[in-house]
Amino acid sequence: DVKVTQSSRYLVKRTGEKVFLECVQDMDHENMFWYRQDPGLGLRLIYFSYDVKMKEKGDIPEGYSVSREKKERFSLILESASTNQTSMYLCASSFLSGRETQYFGPGTRLLVL
Amino acid sequence: AQSVSQHNHHVILSEAASLELGCNYSYGGTVNLFWYVQYPGQHLQLLLKYFSGDPLVKGIKGFEAEFIKSKFSFNLRKPSVQWSDTAEYFCADLSGGGADGLTFGKGTHLIIQP
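^ inputs. structure came back:
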């Protein structure tokens, strides 16, 4: 079974803090993705990566950055957390073709105070 | 801009009722459509996907979807729902959505009453 794990299920941070969200997949997938999920808005793509050290902006990259130093690990970074970044963050991975199924992690619920 | 529209945000049905959840997509090029489901407390998972061929595609757990090109629609259906189908359902489109990232609809929260 594909497993995508995220480092924390719940996080509480203060405005202005630097926040790291970690994601690890065990299926040797090339693609990894970060989405945020908000009630009534569905999921929105923040960033994705198709290879180590490669990254592409998604639909809402502002205020976020990412890092992919190893194939299995994809980190989302909030350089200076703000209250409007309070959300559920979902990581996903897939094989290289965009038509491949994306496998999602359990999510990290982030509260920024 | 790429968009996916789901018509119903909340649906309540009784067990054994038939289900149809609407989805419309805006992109007119290559078709890459998905339905994902999120059961309470569980990961988002794929129900079915469609790229080409027979416009009626079958997925897991008895779900199916019909692609109608002329209507830009990809509606999800199930003939007889069960209490365990209570979940949030998301339609998604790959085409043009940040290269290989998905563009999701806002979701439909389905509640099945026993």
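The mean pLDDT of chain B is 91. Chain B touches chain A at residues 6, 9, 32, 43-46, 49, 51, 90, 92, 94, 97-107 (CB under 8 Å).
thumbs up if we can close this ticket
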